[in-house]
């Protein structure tokens, strides 16, 4: 893992997007296609915008997978990640070769996980675009995260800190409205990606950054700490999100 720290969130997101685009374009050049996983949320907005406007990616040669989605939330809800991706990404790029979204309001969530498992069979992602939560979660793998489960998509319970974050970001009006479960890509599946771009701007993630990356410890209570084991994971911070890291440089990890 390598940590990169920039002046502000705009620069952080831009640099992350440029590196992401470079990896996608290299994969397309080498094998004619690239497969990627994409996250949502407030922290990813600038990253996605720069990826679209400055990445110069031929999206018609890419296959897209969805990182996570609430269970029981219709696509029409403002917090739906499918809605987010369609409005903020899919509709703004050239026709993507293959789009695989999670149907969070499927009648049987486990069958939806099984459906996605079949699509992902024998697939290795070229790159995953992720962030981390205020509780240190990776995708919706809240602490203590399961580092060992092999299934690519799993049903997870959302803890109160995670659900409060969703209210704080304005996606829901109250904690009671936030679903208690989600379908999430598993930790092991994320870690199988050849490359990972982790974009974490903003002061509200500073404590999670310290907990997950401020020491050498890798532990399920700090799910994103697992990223330290990935040799091609690139973490992009700004001064606000990195403010609790001490004596750390982009070359240290």
Structural class: alpha/beta
| Alpha-carbon distance between the two ends | 6 Å
Strand order of the largest sheet: 1-10-9-6-2-3-5
CATH topology: Rossmann fold
CATH first level: Alpha Beta
Strand content: 15-25%
Q: State mean pLDDT (0 to 100 scale).
A: 94
Number of helices: 7
Polypeptide structure, described:
The protein is α/β, with parallel strands linked by helices. It has one domain (2-238): Rossmann fold. 30% of the residues lie in helices and 19% in strands. The protein is built from seven helices and ten strands. It has a seven-stranded parallel sheet with strand order 1-10-9-6-2-3-5, with helices on one face. The chain has a three-stranded antiparallel sheet with strand order 4-8-7.
Summarize the structure.
The chain is of the alpha/beta class.
Topology:
Blueprint: E1 2-6, H1 9-31, E2 34-38, H2 45-54, E3 62-66, E4 68-70, H3 81-88, E5 98-100, H4 109-120, E6 127-130, E7 153-157, H5 160-168, E8 181-185, H6 187-191, E9 195-200, H7 206-213, E10 233-238
Parallel strand pairs: 1-10, 2-3, 2-6, 3-5, 6-9, 9-10
Antiparallel strand pairs: 4-8, 7-8
Helix pairs in contact: 1-2
Key words describing this protein structure:
globular, Rossmann fold, 7-stranded parallel beta sheet, disordered C terminus, 253 residues, 7 helices
């Amino acid at each position: 893992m390598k940590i990169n720290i920039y002046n502000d969130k705009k620069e952080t997101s831009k640099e992350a997007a440029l590196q992401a685009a470079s990896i996608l374009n290299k994969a397309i050049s080498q094998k004619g296609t690239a497969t990627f996983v994409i996250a949502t949320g407030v922290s990813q907005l600038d990253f996605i915008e720069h990826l679209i406007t400055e990445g110069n990616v031929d999206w018609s040669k890419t296959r897209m997978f969805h990182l996570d989605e609430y269970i029981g939330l219709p696509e029409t809800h403002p917090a739906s990640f499918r809605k987010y991706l369609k409005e903020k990404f899919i509709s703004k790029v050239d026709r993507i070769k293959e789009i695989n979204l999670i149907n969070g309001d499927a009648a049987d969530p486990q069958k939806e996980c099984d459906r996605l498992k079949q699509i992902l069979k024998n697939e290795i992602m070229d790159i995953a675009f992720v962030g981390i939560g205020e509780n240190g979660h990776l995708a919706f793998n809240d602490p203590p995260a399961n580092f060992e489960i092999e299934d690519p998509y799993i049903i997870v319970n959302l803890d109160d800190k995670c659900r409060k974050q969703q209210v704080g970001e304005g996606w829901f009006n109250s904690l009671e409205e936030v679903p208690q479960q989600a379908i999430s890509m598993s930790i092991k599946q994320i870690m199988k990606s050849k490359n990972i771009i982790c974009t974490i701007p903003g002061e509200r993630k500073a404590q999670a950054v310290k907990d997950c990356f401020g020491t050498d410890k890798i532990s399920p209570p700090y799910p994103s700490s697992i990223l330290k084991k990935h040799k091609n994971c690139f973490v992009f911070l700004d001064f606000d999100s990195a403010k609790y890291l001490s004596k750390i440089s982009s070359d240290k990890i």
